[in-house]
Design brief:
The protein is mainly alpha-helical. Helix content is 81%, strand content 5%. The protein is built from 5 helices and 2 strands, in the order H-H-H-H-H-E-E. It has a two-stranded antiparallel ribbon. Strand 1 and strand 2 form a beta hairpin. Helix 1 packs across helix 2 and helix 2 packs antiparallel against helix 4. The two termini are 69 Å apart.
Length: 183
């Protein structure tokens, strides 16, 4: 029973899948019937030019209709393909927008979690710098302060960027998000 239903569905889908082939079969069937009729008529009576024109007059129009059908199908196929590509690009854009908004939320969370301890470190560094220190310790404290500022700037860059790109940083770590800021 299921086989008969599948066969019925396949037959119903045949004209939509192969309309040019179906129209070709119809045209050739019409031509065959007209030719048989023509030969039967030629055998039984005299055939003049008007009778030939009358018998075959629909054939050129059927060919023209079949050509137009194929052209319409070609245009619809191209339209369908371009629409499919447009939908795919829209979906890709939506995914990228979602990724960027997720990245911004993660960066904002990181900023909050890192800026609090970083602010305390910066305050302590300023108070330590005010005290009298040996020159080598002052250099190390300045280095710590510079790196803390670098962390702050990196977080600002991540939160202010409009696009991100992935860079490969090694086999063990995989890809890493990097802000794509124009300079």
């Amino acid at each position: 029973m299921q086989t008969l239903l599948n066969l019925g569905r396949s037959i119903k889908e045949l004209p939509t899948k192969y309309p040019a082939v179906i129209s070709g079969y119809i045209i050739y069937l019409y031509l065959f019937i007209v030719m048989i009729r023509f030969f039967v008529m030629a055998k039984t009576s005299v055939v003049d030019f008007y009778t030939v024109i009358e018998m075959f007059d629909a054939l050129p129009f059927m060919w023209l209709l079949a050509m137009m059908l194929v052209k319409v199908i070609t245009i619809r196929t191209k339209l369908h393909d371009s629409e499919t590509q447009r939908i795919m690009k829209e979906q890709e854009l939506h995914i990228k927008e979602t990724q960027i908004s997720t990245m911004r939320e993660v960066v904002m969370g990181l900023q909050h979690q890192i800026n609090n301890p970083l602010a305390i470190i910066m305050l302590l560094l300023h108070s330590v710098k005010r005290s009298v220190l040996p020159p080598d310790v002052a250099v190390k404290i300045n280095s710590i302060e510079d790196e803390s500022k670098r962390i702050t700037q990196a977080l600002k860059d991540f939160s202010a960027t409009e696009s991100y790109e992935a860079q490969q940083i090694g086999k063990t770590f995989g890809a890493m998000a990097v802000p794509n800021n124009p300079v």
